[in-house]
Write a structure and sequence with these properties.
Layout (H helix, E strand, L loop, with lengths): L8 H42 L1 H12 L5 E6 L1 E2 L10 E2 L1 H13 L3 E2 L2 H8 L9 E8 L3 H13 L4 E4 L1 H6 L4 H15 L12 H12 L2 H16 L3 H12 L14 H9 L3 E4 L12 H19 L5 E3 L10 H9 L4 E3 L18 E2 L5 H8 L6 H19 L1
Parallel strand pairs: 1-5, 1-10, 2-3, 4-5, 5-6, 6-7, 8-9
Length: 396
């Protein structure tokens, strides 16, 4: 198993304590999210195949003032038995999703058309969808792009420009690569390393010996724990994990600029998603301006078009703040997208636009999500009551 010796006790103790505290929070949040996804999947199955979804859609259209448009976001269109599955949708499942929306008459808007709608300059004649991707994975070109062309569906890709410049994977993919390589060559223990906190080492050790399914879950846990570190601490920790197994010169999982230009020429929109995928809530204002400005300039230089839309790394509102929005405005961005679920309308803040994150789920789950079942006001009220009850119970 993994044994870690700290040569810098003060830093090591501080990091270990922070990781231990985050482990408790992440573990609880992961368990709750897993339960919610399982419940959502069961509820979706029952609603879809019982006919309840059609009844809901009929009643909801009577309640609404007009058609709705949902922005959905994917990351990787790929699947492996062992990997960070939170960002993966298999190519077959992706086809199922798109074909479901085509069969059921959804209109597909480009990001530019959608922003015209938000500005009040475009009316919707039916329920619509915007397809987007975050990060800029190569499988967006090899797996998603051919299908989008086949079905005539526009899409937008929010690019992390750093990996396109360096060819390096994003930091969470580096963690997955290390675990896979250690397992491939039979590594079951690591040398002591001062840059790996002991709580992380324990998770890493479990990932080396577990089944593929369990190891994938442990990779996800490693990613969630490392996500809570500052950028310098995160880089030191990931680099220390990489020292446990020589990775060689693996091909990059990210897009190249040649691929980006080809997709752009075919009508795919490209927008900014930072340089290095940082947690903006932890950046100083000048660092945020640097990340945002550099990603904007890289894409504009390559494609020759102005960048006015941005997607926040990690997506949730806790990962950005007012300084981030100020930096976006200073750099000429008019729109910024989160991964908070729900739909937007012309009254939504243009710097907190919602998108529904897609997972590797059957089309009947997509159907229920596009119908807005889980964002219905009645369910929001129920969630609020449950949360208030939970807070009251804790106080007791």
């Amino acid at each position: 198993m993994v044994a870690i010796g700290m040569t810098s006790p003060r830093r090591g103790d501080r990091l270990a304590t922070a990781i231990s505290l985050r482990a408790k929070t992440v573990g609880s949040a992961k368990s709750m999210a897993s339960i919610e996804w399982k419940m959502a999947r069961v509820a979706s199955f029952l609603l879809y195949y019982s006919g309840g979804l059609r009844i809901f859609e009929h009643l909801d259209r009577r309640r609404r003032s007009g058609p709705r448009c949902t922005v959905i976001v994917y990351h990787r269109i790929a699947w492996t038995p062992l990997g960070y599955h939170d960002v993966c949708v298999s190519p077959g499942r992706f086809r199922d999703h798109l074909e479901y929306m085509v069969r059921h008459g959804y209109a597909f808007l480009s990001l530019e058309q959608y922003q015209e709608y938000l500005a009040g300059r475009l009316a919707l004649d039916r329920d619509s969808v915007v397809v987007s991707f975050d990060d800029g994975y190569r499988d967006n070109y090899t797996a998603a792009f051919p299908l989008l062309k086949e079905l005539g569906i526009p899409a937008a890709v929010f690019l992390c420009t750093g990996p396109l410049e360096t060819g390096d994977p994003l930091w969470w993919d580096r963690i997955g690569d290390v675990v896979r390589e250690c397992r491939r060559v039979g590594v079951r223990s690591t040398v002591a390393d001062p840059d790996v906190p002991a709580p992380l080492a324990a998770v890493f050790a479990r990932a080396l010996v577990a089944s593929d399914r369990r190891a994938s879950a442990e990779i996800g846990r490693l990613v969630d724990l490392v996500k809570g570190l500052s950028t310098p601490e995160r880089e030191r920790t990931v680099a220390a994990l990489e020292r446990q197994a020589p990775l060689g010169d693996a091909s990059s999982p990210m897009l190249t600029w040649d691929m980006v230009r080809e997709m752009h020429a075919a009508g795919i929109t490209f927008c900014a998603h930072s340089v290095t995928h940082p947690d903006f809530s932890r950046l100083a204002p000048e660092e945020a301006r640097g990340e945002i400005g550099a990603s904007k300039r890289s894409i504009e230089d390559q494609l020759g078009v102005p960048m006015t839309a941005f997607a926040y790394p990690y997506g949730k509102q806790r990962f950005f703040n007012a300084s981030t929005i100020d930096a976006l405005r200073e750099n000429g961005f008019h729109w910024a997208y989160t991964t908070e679920n729900g739909v937007n309308d012309p009254h939504t803040s243009p710097y907190a636009l919602r998108r529904d994150g897609m997972r590797d789920v059957p089309a009947y789950v997509l159907a229920v999500r596009l119908a807005g079942v889980f964002e219905h006001p009645m369910l929001d009220r129920l969630r609020s009551r449950i949360e208030r009850h939970g807070v009251t119970s804790k106080k007791r």
